[in-house]
Amino acid sequence: MLDSDEGGFHLRACSKSSFAESELDLILARCRDLIIQFQGALYKKIQELDLLTSSDKNILSTLNEDMPPAEHAFVHELVAQQARLTPNNEAICSWDGSLTYKELDQKAVGLAKHLIQCGVTVRSWVPLLFQKSKWHIVSVLAVMKTGAAFVSLDVTMPIGRIANILKQLDNIPLALTSADQHQKFHGIVDSVVIFDEKLTTIDVPEIILPTPGVENSIRYDQPVYIIFTSGSTGIPKGAMIEHSNLTTEIKALNQELKSTPDVRSFQLNMLNFDFCISEIFCPLLCGGCVCIPSEWSRFNDIPGAMESLNANFISLSPTLLSTMSVMDFPKLKTILLSGERVWKDLSDLWMDAGKRVLHMYGPTECTVACCFLDTCIKAHYTGLIGNPYASKFWIVDPLNSDKLQSIGAPGEILIEGPTVGRGYLGDPERTKEIFIAPPAWFSSICQRRPSRFYKTGDLGKLTKHGDYEIVGRKDSQIKVRGWRVEVLEIEHQMRLASGFGAAIEVRNPTLAPGQDQLVAFLELQKARDHESTTADVDVLWEEMKSNETKFSKMIEQVESRLRDVLPTYMIPSAYIPIRTFPMTNIFKLNRRKLKEVANKLDISAIRNSMSGILDK
Fold first, then answer.
1. What percent of the chain has pLDDT over 90?
2. pLDDT digits (tens, 9 = 90+) for 333-364
3. How many structural domains is the chain composed of?
4. Dihedral (C-alpha) 484, 487, 493, 497: value to the nearest 10 degrees?
5. pTM flag (> 0.85)
6. What is the 3-state secondary structure (H, E, C) of 367-393?
7. Which residue of 28, 240, 361, 551 sits 20 to 30 Å from the alpha carbon of 192, by its own alpha carbon?
8. Cα–Cα distance, 572 to 539 (Å, whole number)
9. How many alpha carbons lie under 13 Å from residue 398 in its C-beta half-sphere?
């Protein structure tokens, strides 16, 4: 309520039942500031109004004024330091043998000297192509000790993709690979070194490894590795990460994880995936052990591999975790979820079994991750990602990063801090677009010097409790018949209503304007381990026909909930039962496969054959 009072005004809330007191204070302060702005300029456009109140600015200043410092150290030197502290402790327990810390460091030094003999220099790029093995980690450390940067490739990569990646690198003295993979470099790299354990025992006293602080030697701000992700143009884009980025990230993440020497980390992720970086270095920097399964075990028997390696820590996606049974993992203590939004019932299931369930969020370009949530400590819900570490978050207008969003308002997440990487290799335009200069508002909020900024493309908001929440992606806000639709919201509501996995795709096989249809996929069974990474999408037509009444009742239940909470344009046109969700080779939901199935469907024929069951 607005009351005039000698040219001033008072704002009073009519009801406090729907809002917390802190929320009311923000709302009232925002209204007061807007009215003042209108008084000063009645003809201002709405988009020209400053929605940030003085209270908003104070909160943001308090949250973001103190930036965690960058670590000026090298991860490979910290591993060597650990080797001096605990030389006989197990550093690697792999399907192909174990290594103590002393053995790991000595073999990495020997291999590094051989690589230098073969022409590897500071600031070279060294591609690595191995199956999962203890020798991959030895090779990674060896490359780091030479002052070069490693480029881990995956054995499942087509040769054409390997070629597209390596032709972007301008200084490749050699590639290092196992004997069973070397032919993939034929015609792509001039020199290929086939790994042999004998190479790790070379002792050449006259070869001195690069030392920090010496001219033309290794520096904290030079690349330590590069990871190539899918590019919108079809050409892989390489995200460069510097030594200081990596050291800052691993030390900070270990603090969040509360890592101890007892940790035995199961190396599940692909070697060219950024979460593999933390799987390797988090345990090695705290005196723990990296547990490496064979490629076969990784795809076919995760429980058996973890049991045999005595692993107690695993990092994986929520989609993959949902396929697993709690009873199969008696030794598992900690689960680190990443790569996708975590739904509450999944984390609750594993916490009820006595497991510690954590969630980390962050893009490849920002060195593995930068936001952390311990669901065992903090009340959580689907979409919550917790608090930043080794970085600061800002929420900005998705269309204009020079405009800050107010507290509680959704917008694009900007990440600022010492874990933000160098940019994209050989793509200055894309780097300038995504790794942006300090926005115009920065100096009005913080007195400190700005760090690097990265535009994530993720939509999020700062909650009233000071946590951050993901609400979607800029590119997952699709348009269906002119309406803006957030598919993650529909999937969340479907999952709550059905108890099954749910995924939404847009069907428009002819790409005709106005013909888009939302197709809902319901996962009626769960894949065991990784069987759905290669399997085709198995639509359960016959099972659905034989259980027509049961399926119809389930759809009615799902749609009833959707109609209660979503507008009509967000209701799917069809509901398709499938056996298991397809997953990518990094164990995330393979939406491309689902879209292919959706575009092949004849919705009219489905409706007719099912006697109207799917006619929703």
1. 53
2. 999 999 888 888 889 999 999 999 999 999 99
3. 2
4. 120
5. no
6. CCCCEEEECCCCCCCCCEEEEECCCEE
7. 240
8. 17
9. 16
- Residue 13 in domain: yes
Residue 500 is part of a domain; what is its CATH number? 3.30.300.30
Domain membership flag for residue 340: no
Q: Residue 71's CB: how many other CB atoms inside 10 A?
A: 22
339: in domain: no
Instruction: Give residue 309's pLDDT.
Output: 98
Pick out the chain residues at pLDDT < 70: 1-26, 34, 37-44, 46-50, 213-216, 230-234, 378-380, 475-484, 508-515, 526-535, 544-546, 603-616
Place of tokens 């639509």: 539
**What range does the domain containing 37 cover?**
2-49
Q: Backbone dihedral region of 149: left (phi > 0), alpha (psi from -120 to 50 degrees) or beta?
A: beta
Q: How far apart are CA 292 and CA 309, in angstroms?
A: 8
- Structure token digits, residue 237: 């884009």
Count Cβ atoms within 10 A of the Cβ of residue 611 and give its class: 0-12 exposed, 13-18 middle, 19 or more buried: exposed
**What DSSP character marks residue 570?**
G
Q: Which of 29, 49, 69 is the last residue of a domain?
A: 49
**407 secondary structure, DSSP code:** T
**Between vectors from CA 501 to CA 500 and to CA 504, what angle results, nearest 5°?**
125
151 belongs to a structural domain: no
What pLDDT is stored for residue 471 in this prediction? Answer: 86
- Relative to beta strand 411-416, strand 392-397 is antiparallel
- Residue 539, CB half-sphere, CA atoms under 13 Å: how many? 14
DSSP per residue over 290-315, as a string? EEE--HHHHHH-HHHHHHHHT--EEE
Give the per-residue pLDDT at 164.
86
Residue that is written with structure tokens 């990871």 in the block: 227
DSSP string, 21-52: HHHHHHHHHHHHHHHHHHHH-TT--GGGS---
Number of Cβ within a 10 Å radius of residue 30: 20
pLDDT of residue 607: 58
* Partners of 415 in beta bridges: 393, 454
